[in-house]
Amino acid sequence: MVLVSTLLGLGAALVPQTADAGDLAWSRWAADHVLGTSLDVMVTPGGAGLGERAGLAALREIARLDRVLSRWREDSELAALNRAPRSQVSAELYAVVGMAEHWRRETGGAFSGRLGAVPGTPGAAQREAVKAAEAAILRLEPSGRAIDRPEAVRFDLDGVAKGYILDRALVAALRAVPEASGLLIDLGGDVRVWSHEGRGEAWRLGVADPARPFDNVGPLQTLSLRRGALAYSGVRARDGGDHHILDPRCGAPASAVTGAAVIAPTAAQADALATAVAVMDPEAGLSLLGRWPGVSGMLVAADGRMLTSANWSGTHLTAATTAAAPGAWPAGFRLSVAVEIPDKGGANYERPYLAAWITDAQKRVVKTLLVLGPEPRWRESNYIFWRRVERMDMAAVARVARTTRAPGRYEVVWDGRADDGQPLPRGAYTLNVEASREHGGHSFVALPLALGSGRANFQSDPTQELGVITARYGPGR
After folding, report:
1. pTM
2. Residue spans of beta strands (DSSP E) within 265-375
């Protein structure tokens, strides 16, 4: 059996993709608010508390290293380093600063860990700050692990520290569950996997399409990986904001690549190289990846081209061809749905469990769009969805279930096909969205949809647990 998960690079999530929820052979453990993102751990075989043991061990190691390497904490060792011209540091911090400088040299400056003080707004001030940081002379002294930091340099090690922490978390988890035959750790979209040589199976991973930043769209490519890491870097399109990646070589936003996925033996290497090739011209980035054994990559260029290195193991996913139904949607039309999860704040806040699905004019469920919160013991709190869909069709839920998410705007897209892949006709439908929250309330919205031959827009009013829901019907990518 091949174990399946999906890396959605734009708002990463771990998604079981088996057609039969009863075949899940792993145990899963998840946590939120880990390094500002989410942590997912999967262990095979399932049962015997392996998932929880591995997850807690990984979390302890991540928490320990966060106190060393975080640039978001005033009390971290990295923050202290950034306040002093000279410091003697721990072995972990010295190692990661050394890694950042190593990859800066190896990538010709496309990677840098020196830009923590650079202004976030593109312009002359940003370019000058980058130039000063990159030109500064940094001294690392192995004896005593001393670092002389020039004034122009503030370390931002996220481009390699996250991978380093992920590698160390895998080691800690394996020590906690030596009987495991397979282990996967997903830290906010970067994934590290391990399979036992004798009894472990490959993990099947997916890479998102940066041109389709929707929360329910399947991967652009899938690949199998027994051991190693997969990291993703790219322009984040969620919420329509102005997100960019800075090129350390010139101090300007990079624009040639919208997404870069890299496989490497370690997460630190994958993390650094994905960050570097995301600012390079696609062809130059692929050439760079070819310098290291066990490293491969896939890049999506700004013009939509998908380029892969010669040893990339990904395979295209192709949709089954199905004859159009009488009165089918106009060619190229889709329904784009945006759901707002309001920020309630407070220390007692728990992320909501959310379900979105489509019913036809006869109130039959025709399409499950999104389920946030796959833990079965809480999903029944969305009692309308539970009664109408989930308890009767667990397989449909397993295909789309994702971890609960933080407040914000989430988008899903519907191509007019039912859960079984058959195209549906134009006509009257209802978008159903339900949300419930521990220590919170319960909300249900039924938004009528008239889907015909022309464009249409629909909108709901906000409720206790849901903000405004909008649906746009018309041509799209």
Report:
1. 0.70
2. 296-301, 306-308, 315-316, 333-341, 353-360, 365-372
